Amino acid sequence: MELRPGDLIMTGTPEGVGPVRRGEVMTGGIDGLGEIRIAVR
To answer: From the CA atom positions of the chain, what is the Rg in Å?
Structure first.
């Protein structure tokens, strides 16, 4: 699969996942592009 400029990546929530809470950090990344970290305040 190849992503192109303007493509959207849609995700869902797996069963059993709870809400994001203050103090948690979410991390995601793509090989070759880097990583993003988001802290919930």
So the answer is: 13
